Amino acid sequence: MSWSTKNPADKNPDRFWSKVDIGKANECWEWTASKSNKGYGKLWWGPKLEGAHRIAYMLEHDVDQLPKQINGSRTEVMHSCDNPGCVNARHLSLGSAALNQRDKVNKGRHHFHVRKTCSRGHAWTKENTGWIRGHKSKVDGTPWKVRYCRACHSARMKKAYPKEQKIRKTREYKDKKNARRRELYAQRHPNAKLRGPMPRKKDK
Ligand SMILES: [Zn+2]
Ligand SMILES: [Zn+2]
User: Fold this and answer.
1) CA of 191 to the centre of ligand 1 (A)
2) Which pTM was predicted?
3) Mind listing the domains of the chain with CATH numbers?
4) Is 55 helix (H, G, I), strand (E, B) or coil?
5) Exposed site from 35, 44, 60, 192, fewest CB < 10 Å?
6) How far, in Å, CA of 18 to CA of 200, rounded?
7) What is the pLDDT of residues 142-195, one digit of tens each?
């Protein structure tokens, strides 16, 4: 018996669909045959081992191949349902590797986001997670979101500016800062009525 990829497996839609658990129109259709370790269905399709979701997309759109690149970045078939084993064409769209990566980061699905703690062991709770806007995506201009650990950030600031940290907590410093802010605001908005300093809670 010879086993060779030179004998391409049939590109037979019936063979493909026989391995799918077809559900209702809007449900996920689960791939029942072999899967990659990331959960994507795999099938010999012509001369290569192809992703089942990619085959589903090609069958749906009646094309033999997907474009190699989109906007200079590798073409990928993306899941709107975030279920890698799904081959329902309604949940699939064509994107690029760059776009897919940004999608993962902004939806909190990137493998970084799977971690429970930061590298110094602070838990990634909602309170402890800060988000800043990163650079804009080259693909479609949407900004990336970058998360940071608030505990690490404040520890870093305390270490870098130990004196400033103490000074900034004093009433004197805060009053001075707020007075300066009010002054600048009054300059920019000469007609605004200013209320003066906010009433302060008396110390117990
Ligand atoms: Zn799905
Ligand atoms: Zn941390």
Assistant:
1) 57
2) 0.54
3) 8-114 (3.90.75)
4) helix
5) 192
6) 72
7) 788 888 999 999 999 888 888 888 888 889 999 999 899 988 988 988 888 777
